[in-house]
Amino acid sequence: MLPLPNIISKGQFPNPETPGYVGFANLPNQVHRKSVKKGFEFTLMVVGESGLGKSTLINSLFLTDLYPERVIPGAAEKIERTVQIEASTVEIEERGVKLRLTVVDTPGYGDAINSQDCFSTIISYIDDQFERYLHDESGLNRRHIVDNRVHCCFYFISPLGHGLKPLDVQFMKAIHNKVNVVPVIAKADTLTLRESERLKRRILDEIDEHGIKIYHLPDAESDEDEDFKEQTRILKASIPFAVVGSNQQIEAKGKKVRGRLYPWGVVEVENLEHNDFLKLRIMLITHMQDLQEVTQDLHYENFRSDRLKRGGRLSSHGYILPLSPAYVLVCQLSSLHLPPPQRTNLCLDTHRVTKQHRNATVGHNGRHICYSSETEPKHPELRRWKLSY
Fold first, then answer.
1. pTM of the predicted protein model
2. Using CA atoms, how far apart are residues 26 and 37, in angstroms rounded to an integer?
3. What's this protein's family per the entry (predicted)?
């Protein structure tokens, strides 16, 4: 066995030429390797009336067939059909990067004559995924939590109207605080470019008028290159995206393209001059991490804080069950705006918590705050929290 200096001299441990080099600049590479090995998860929900090409667009976006055994119901079956939730999961791998994609479809949405409560099933599904994640996050084994929270919702708008329908307004107002909403104009090949721009402006005006919060792309950082800044500006100006989907390969100008063939010409799916399909795909791929962060930091935190304010969690039967005093105190302490050194050593001795939550001892940066039914918390920010059991 060679001594360590000989191993280094043979190049197995290269010595950088830059003086003062330590090596922690390699930390991003470690995070990259770990993320690639673990893979990524993303959940996309598509909502819209039947016949707007939702399934075709999703298959076109990810170059896969998510619905190989789908049976399209007839007109008679649609009359009595209610809104259903169909989640399809597929593992996609590209250049060694694995993506666990879950697409949640909502067949039956908007098909009934009275569609007043047709989106209650969709809202319940979104809340159930938040509830399941909260339950798994609060459990003992948090190492392998499957994230099925809805990170993005493509809402398909019909191109045949003159803006948003009342159902569109009600649905987006009902979910805009729960999920990232991206409005999409379906079947844009039925519109001219001038009609498409006019419809986009009308939809944006109605969204602002009704106070609907759609997903806004984050601004490019000042240190980003000019190409990325220009790309972000174009994507922001293209919302809502007017798209065309197709899974057919046709010949146009001597090459095979995915598009639709008409007597008057060819509509290419991946042509920026014809529709916004490529812009929608670029937005989804380049801002997928931001969509997940907004879901975690905004929508899920709002749900979690609302659940803690109500003092319970929903059971599988829909009843509100009380949370243990120990769990409530830990969750409330974790949300306090304390300096980092005080938050790192946060712990709770749950063995000393009884039904009257007496003698609950909280370790806070080496200091102990005794909280019981007779005494008030010594920390000033803890005095406003009152546990109820």
1. 0.72
2. 17
3. Belongs to the TRAFAC class TrmE-Era-EngA-EngB-Septin-like GTPase superfamily. Septin GTPase family.
346 is written with which tokens? 């946060």
Q: Which amino acid is at 234?
A: I
CA distance 320 to 307: 10
The model's pLDDT over 11-70, given as tens digits with 9 standing for 90+, comes to 555 555 666 666 767 777 777 777 777 778 899 999 988 888 888 888 888 877 766 666
SS3 77: helix
Distance CA 269, CA 287 (A): 21
For residue 339, whether the previous peptide bond is cis, meaning omega lies within 30 degrees of 0, is no
* Assigned token pair, 312: 């319970």
Residue labelled with tokens 């105190």:
329
Residues 6+ apart with CB under 8 A from 121: 82, 83, 84, 85, 106
CA distance 47 to 167: 12
Say if residues 292 and 73 touch (Cβ distance below 8 Å). Answer: no
Residue from 56, 61, 24 nearest 42 by CA: 61
User: Beta-carbon neighbour count of residue 95 at 10 Å?
Assistant: 5
Tokens of 340: 């980092």
The rounded radius of gyration (Å) of the Cα atoms in the chain is: 26
In single-letter form, the type of residue at position 61 comes to L
pLDDT in tens, 290-305: 999 999 999 999 999 8
For 307, the token pair is: 């659940």
DSSP state for residue 188 in the 8-state scheme: G
